Amino acid sequence: MRIKLFMLLVIYFFYNPSQAAAVNVAVAANFSGPMQKIASAFDQSTGHKTIIAYGTVGKFYAQIKSGAPFDLLISADQETPEQLEKDNLAVAESRFTYAIGKLVLWSSRPGFVDEHGDILKKDDFKHIAIANPKVAVYGEAAIEALNKLGLTQQLQARFVTGENITQAYQFVSSGNAELGFIAWSQIYEEGRAIPGSYWLVPQDLYPSLRQDAVLLTRGKDNVAAKDLLAFLRSDTAKNIIRSYGYDN
After folding, report:
1. Mean pLDDT of the 39-67 span
2. What is the dihedral of CA 135, 136, 139, 143, to 10 degrees?
3. Would you say the pTM of this structure is higher than 0.85?
4. Is 79 exposed, middle or buried (CB count within 10 Å of its CB: 0-12, 13-18, 19+)?
5. Which of 51, 84, 132, 181 could pair covalently with 142 via S-S, beta carbons 3.0-4.6 A apart?
């Protein structure tokens, strides 16, 4: 009887529906795969409800500046969360790096992309997809890599520009572009890449893709927002993040 009473008290204090809350999260599009699993694990273990919007950090920044109702930003860069802190739109000292991303050149065709990326120097393709470099961090990284390779001007007429990294992936997977620069996490899960061919772009060709999360001012009193930020540091979340090819 005492054991049953003890268990009821544990359930009441650690899983009390009255303590559950909702958290609105702005999430960089490259992180959509792991975020779905993290949110599911978080909601199940806490009773909170995670409401997610995926997009580019450039657009999220403009929306947050305009009063969009987000509690957390899980960004694709460090600069945007840092700038939000300077704008007094994020809670000081809440920011941390949750993942380090990787850029990949991918084609849905097996054997089409070689292991050194030499396909970029050939005339074997008509279209190459990238995310909009003005608002998407991975698109900016792709342009930086092409600049260092001296291929930007040569390939510019073949660019098919997606609004974000998800759309760039869709262009390639649908065959509307023969190849494209996307996030490694979009084609890698549980230790292997999906069918197709790829070149993992050397990391000295683009700036480090350190991705930061930050608690926004709107969410400073939201228990679910603070709990989710802490959950991102947990072993459960870290294991999920690594399973998609990120470093952390």
Report:
1. 96
2. 40
3. yes
4. middle
5. 181
The rounded distance, in Å, linking the Cα atoms of 220 and 15 is 22
Question: Could you tell me which of 193, 143, 149, 195 has the C-alpha nearest to residue 168?
Answer: 143
**Mapped to the 3 state alphabet, what secondary structure does the chain carry?**
CHHHHHHHHHHHHHCCHHHCCEEEEEEEHHHHHHHHHHHHHHHHHHCCEEEEEEECHHHHHHHHHCCCCCCEEECCCCHHHHHHHHCCCECCCCCEEEEEECEEEEECCCCCCCCCCHHHHCCCCCCEEEECCCCCHHHHHHHHHHHHHCCHHHHHHHEEEECCHHHHHHHHHCCCCCEEEEEHHHCEECCEECCCEEEECCHHHCCCEEEEEEEEHHHCCCHHHHHHHHHCCCHHHHHHHHHCCCEC
- The structure tokens listed for 99 are 């993942």
The dihedrals phi and psi of 204, each to the nearest 5 degrees, come to -85, 0
pLDDT mean over 32-39? 97
CA distance 29 to 19: 30
The amino acid sitting at 79 is E
Tokens of 129: 């997809």
pLDDT score of 189: 86
Asked whether the predicted pLDDT for residue 14 surpasses 50, the reply is no
Percent of the chain surpassing pLDDT 70: 92
Angle in degrees, 0-180, between the axes of helices 32-46 and 235-243, rounded to the nearest 10: 160
